[in-house]
What does this fold into?
Amino acid sequence: MKCRSIAGIWPAAPPIHRVTATAVLDQPPTVYTGATDGSIVWWTISDNDSKKEIKPVAVLCGHASPIADLGICSPLLASADGNVDRTSDLTSNFACSNYGALASASRDGVLCVWSRGSGHCRRRRKLPPWVGSPSVVRKLPANPRYICIACCFIDAIPTDQDSRDPSEVTENQGESELNRKPNKCTIIIVDSYALTIVQTVFHGNLSIGPLKFMALVRPFDDKLQFVLVIDSFGQLQLIPMLKESNLDTEDVTKLNYCSSHVKMTNCSNISHEGALILSIDTNGVIVGLLYKTNCVFVLVANGTVIGGISFENSVLFSESDASKSHPVGGMFLHCDNIDPSNARETRGIVASKFAVWNDRGFTVVFSVSYIDSIFKSEVVCEIPSGFYPIDMKISIIFLQLDHYLLRIESICLSEEGPSVWKPHITIWSLGEQLYEHENAGCHCKLLGEGDFLMDWVDGFSHTPEMECSEHSLDRAGAARKAVLTTWKSTSMSKESIDSVSKDDLKYMFPQKECIVSCSMVLSQNTDIPYAIVYGYRNGEIELVEFQGLLDEVNLDDEDVHLDAKHSGSIQKFSGHTGAVLCLAAHQMVGTPTGQTFRHVLLSGSMDCTVRVWDLETSNPIKVMRHHVAAVHQLILPPIQIDRPWNDCFLSVGEDFCVALASLETLRVERMFPGHPNYPAKVVWDGWRGYLACLSQNHSVATGTKDVLYIWDIKTGARERVLRGTASHSMFDYFCKRTNANSIPGRMLNINTSASSLLLPLVEDGSSLQFQLKSNKGPVSSNGANLVEPILPQLNTSVGNSTGPDPGPATFYDKLPVRCFCPFSGIAILSFDLACLMAFVFAGDHSVIRQNAPESKVVKDITSPHQRTVRDESNVGGNLKPAVKRHNLNKALAVSLLRFSLSFLHLWDVDFELDDLLKSEMRLNKPDKFIVAPGLQGDRGAVTLAFPGFSSTLELWKSSSEFCAMRSLTMVSLAQCMVSLSGSCSTASSSLSAFYTRNFAEKFPYIKSPSLQLLVSFWQDEVDHVRMAARSLFHCAASRAIPPPLLFPKAIGLEENMSTADLMRGSEGQYEEKSASYLDTERLLHTPLDSQNEDNEILKWMESFELQDWISCVGGTSQDAMASHIIVAAALAIWYPSLVKPSLAMLAIHPLIKLVMAMNDKYSSAAAELLAEGMESTWKPCIISEIPRLIGDIFFQIECVSGASANASAVSPVVPPKLRETLVGVLLPSLALADLPGFVTVVEGLIWSTSSDSPVHLVSLKTLIRVMRGSPRSLAQYLNKVVNFILQTMDPSNLVMRKACLQSSMAALKEVTRVYPMVAWSEMSARLAVGDAISEINCANIHVYDMQSVTKIKVLDASGPAGLPNLLVGASETVTTAISALSFSPDGEGLVAFSEHGLIIRWWSLGSAWWEKLSRNFALVQCTKLIFVPPWEGFSPNSSRASIMAKIAGNDKEASSQEQTRGLNDVDSLNMLIHNLDLSYRLEWVGERKLVLARQGHALGTFQL
It folds into this structure.
């Protein structure tokens, strides 16, 4: 399991966001906007009706190309029982965060599904090349688990790099589209849970023009569904789909070639020859086709034009120079009193609302109807425009949310250089105006607005070093207020427009010196980051170091101390005249010609230059001008490459050229020209010496396809050219092979500004280990900087062209801190909890290389993954290397933990805690950065909260997975700090308390941590993580019980108790208060209620798709089911009053199956729970099955492990920790639950298993644990236990005796130590075992000869000799028999004391007596009997009725007391065992004198 905590670092200015796609959800109101750079912003809307606030919560990073479309789906809606709930409204299902999800598709074919509640990426994949590029995403209406995606091919997408609006397409471009050949299109059905293609609806050439619009409709009847596709000229085509029920069958991948083609016919008074449609929408019955001057409505069923609306004389359309505008979009509004299905039934009546808006945002809502072949339209209401200056570019999209309209504007101020787009959202109330037409034409009311700027106001307060002035923020606020005032005004005068000047609007945009155009996280030859480099739009470059990271370790003194050179300093690099577009950092391997620099910074810019900087001095080294257009990419050499290529780099420019330049010679060595378009994706395969450049077409007019050029690096020759889908297939294959020889998923973005989302998706460590084990080729020094420190056995010098086998490279996936930049300006630090723990506690992190001579030690250490060597003469050589290694490892670990805690902690919530962390733990609050938390998603996707505490708190409120992972990380690291530095114990304890309970007490509405996620870490390898996971589970369990398990009446009980009370009070106190109330409610449950509850519990435990935590930690469906079982079992044990009564009975058998599954992740935890709750919870459920379960466990040990008793190692089939749990925890608890069954099973194993089987050792160890844990319970089976131990020592079975002798002797010694009724004589080698509990007339003592390991005699201890009549009437009574035994010092006699009757018996006839007696088992009477007088404090009772009491005539009174107690035989026996006293001892003080002692106190001395 992976627990990765994200800390995102935002730039000083808000990101650029031009909206291309939108989606909306209600309950709670949520908006998603996708942009041209691939980012998706998650917005929330407040529930206040009077004033709604729209705020961004997080940015979803999963795409690297423009978002084609966003859709709403429900991946888990059909998963609970395998059927779709077709009766429930989908909107209500989305209210539950477990069901709704966002599906996003980008133009490069990447699909993502984002969780409704937490916002993290559940699934991420790339569509196969044959599908094409996604264009439209729609959910299936009756089965929202599946989504329909319409895809075109790259040469058919009518967009360019700037993502033009439809209004920007000219008539000439429209004619070129009309004259083109039919376009290839693919329509597929995708399962949103696994993102697998389940059906191909259409794959081929459309009979219409380029795809413009797609919808799912039922035009003829409700049984058959069609896919409606429309081109840019209004031509319609209907494609039938398979029935949705077929999606659940295996044979779902079918092609539909037949389609119903319906070409639109024009009205006689409206002509649109060659005119392009600007917008299309449908309500399932009619289609609205929006042109520049009018809108036409067409029936879906037959393509009949029923009417239209002209805009030529309305405010929507204007040709004047002062206010030029025209319609750009339209949509149908869904009203509660209008059902499109009714129009389908009547066949002659159509009524709906249709909204149209122009390019300035002015919107008119029309009421359209078609009754008796008469079309009518009238204005219902209007929304005023935004009144922006005429030369300001605006892109507008509308969304409907219940009775509100959301206007989403993307605003761009026309300036030189790349466009800077800013989103702005306003919400308008429609109210009753959709139904009442008395106030037709009135303006809608503005309810609220939102954008990025308000969140950055808080961010600027934490970044005093940034150059963006507070004056800019004030001007931005003033401009916002002016625009808002104008919108609220109902007038549309020229004065209103002029009231908002263009200069004021400029301040609503970030200043050029604050706009980050590219960024990268800098790692000094390691993957431990130490700085962030920003490139700005004004050409400046800035390097900001993290505060407190190690740069040098001083070994001169015996007390190793750390010099923190990285103190947060800032370096400036000035020289570019255009925006900086790309960055890279490289450490030199060779020696530059005539230069002394070792670490360089590379930058590419809009000014067509590549500049080389000295990273240490900030001085420029070289300006390279080999490009004639902007330089967009800088690519460093891969790991597996030799000289001279290891000191080269690639630059990719908009001049369609790729250049190879050398840093040693500071000149261009190769040019790779001739690409038809800008090669956006370039991969350098250093192992085979090839370069793959993928050029994607962005122009419709050219009509060309995507092209892949493959170049030979050494010769500069072009080896191969592939076009179309073959180019994508080959490029994906190229990336997979190249990724196998590099750090997984980081072919481009290691010490470069390339997006981590750019290249195809490859799982972490997919084939890296196999490749590095099999590759014997060259290893560059650049690669050695990364590989050699991780693999100590790799010892290659600088510049070696060949090297030994690198060996396993699993450390590549074990970097404690990963850093990458998904988008410009956003830096992500991913802290892997397991890798952090491995780094801190790894014993092989030595300062001295394991294969290097002892004269070499480390100088510069930023992490144990990167080390350079120097001669020991430079430092004091008197220090022992082991001491240095220990001190250095500890110092490095403490520094890394402080760095992690500084960026992950939630500052400014508890100021006392913050001060304590700064003073005692010496954490550095990252004041120079705008830090926000995030969530790691599938395959590199990231969800990053926006700056500001409100966005961070929203993440805590919406995601139980985030709460669990962040709390687990912080508590684990805090406990780890205590073990490394005892001086910060107070701060660590306070930090742990903050994330376990204090934060939830302060903000009780945050989500409780996911219990399923926490239990997945119960068996972590590190103790700190295990302890943290269990502590968090107990703190959150009462608040986070899954609804199917929660007892219904406990919900109201929890609501009446505050969260603080639940946390402060122990579980026992809470259960005491609620037990009586809940017990009463349980009695009122009917059998039908119980059956329904049982079904809900079983569904929940057997489900594997109901939780988002699986994708958060990289789990599988098996992990989900196992975690559900463990959570159910744990709640049944620890919180029985809060869960449903039948939970224990339903959970026990799945729990047993999980134990027997021998799963290394969960079986140990399941075994511990089974053992812990055996006596209190599970025993009544499985009492008859315990012997079989014991036998199954022994079978696993015998057959599955396959290890003999004397073997030194255990087969890895059964994990060692699981074996230890089974033997040390579960078996003893099962033995205690059913001791007779356990003894019977182990006795049978003597004959049913091999003599050297490990089960015999396990049985002996289990007996020892039972004797130590619950000795009284085993007392009544002492004879069987001793007999089993002696059988393992049988001299006739030499194999078993040899294997078990040591353990058998240890067991015998434990028996004699624990039980005073067992005596051992070393002098005579005799063992005596007395009956601890038996009937009065059947008490015996068994004597064994240990040399032959056989029984030799049975001594009679049933009653006093000569007084048998005293026991009349009590012969059937079961009571304590022998309380203590002791051999005489010479071994010639045996003494026994019985508490029942207070009698001491003595057997002695000399040493020869033992030998002369024949070995028969006739009872031997004692030779002497002594009555022990009662001592002070002794009071006989029913369980200890003495013979002396019977002699005194009190037997009738005792019998009456027994009857009044009313105890049955089982209860009496249990009481007897409970009161059994094992503290009696007989100690010899002379040859014929002994002392009777109890609990260490002498009771009397007796002469024999």
